[in-house]
Amino acid sequence: MKAIVLNHCCAADDLKISEIPIPNVKSGWVLVKIFAAGLNHSEALLRMFEADSDYINTPVVPGIECVGEIADPSDSNLKKGDRVVALMGGMGRSFNGSYAEFALLPTKNVFKVTTTLDWLSLAAVPETYYTAYGSLFECLMLNKNDVLLVRGATSTVGQAAVQIAKAVGATVIAAVRRQESFDKMLALGADFCVVDHENLSAKTLPAEPNKVLELVGPKTLRDSLLCVKKPGYVCNTGILGNEFTVKDFDPIKYIPNGVFLTGFFSNYPSQTAIDGLFHLIETAKIRPLYSKVFTLDEISAAHTLLEKGGAGGKIILKICC
Description:
The chain is of the alpha/beta class. The protein is built from nine helices and 15 strands. Helices cover 26% and strands 23% of the residues. Strands 3, 4, 5, 6, 7, 14 and 15 form a seven-stranded mixed sheet that branches. The protein has a six-stranded parallel sheet with strand order 10-9-8-11-12-13, with helices on both faces. Helix 3 packs across helix 4.
């Protein structure tokens, strides 16, 4: 089969198609024929900085998510031809991932889906929309009476969160870096837009949020905790600000009284969560967003764009559709 194999850290231009054997099935794993895969910034970081680390099992086929059909169900409850999504759990790092025509994946990270979406639209969903969905409902317990501030709203997860939050009737404030993004956010369903200068707690917002989805991360987390009325809830999911920890974190002084801080980690999806996500997508007629589509032999161009940014949304790798 055709695959992209990462042996060590390299430049985007060094990525080439290889021919490797289709993997043999084993107990607890299923073989998936991959139709498309969403690309993620973590895969660029893997290629640029992490591939030479001891905890990466190189040579490895990158890719932390995919969509496709069951080619061999092994000893699982799935059936050949089932339409599935797969994500996380070490995919593309501890074992071969989605930059290939087939992938042997742990059954626990492969989920049957019922959907009317085409393959490319479906490929925009797994990691991005699951992360938004889990953050909003598992962590923030979002409901229609809430006022939600999405910080980092122009990111792929931010855009998905705006769509999902509006689908359940919440009031949404989209915080973005530039006013030029307002029209896009409003078109997605945001009720209000604000320019984020990292001190939103000092501004009078168009509505008073009781919940914040923090995608910028530690760089603005303290400010987000100060933004919410009480009781308030803040979920830190992203690290778009490129600060990965809070220096000298003192939870007693850092977290205001009456404000609850949580975080979402997407490494452990469940069939229940995936079913809930797709039910909402179908019933609310949410249109999954993606911006660029590349084929497997265009992987260098895809990774160059992924590394530099500027795609304006999810990048999809079209493999067999």
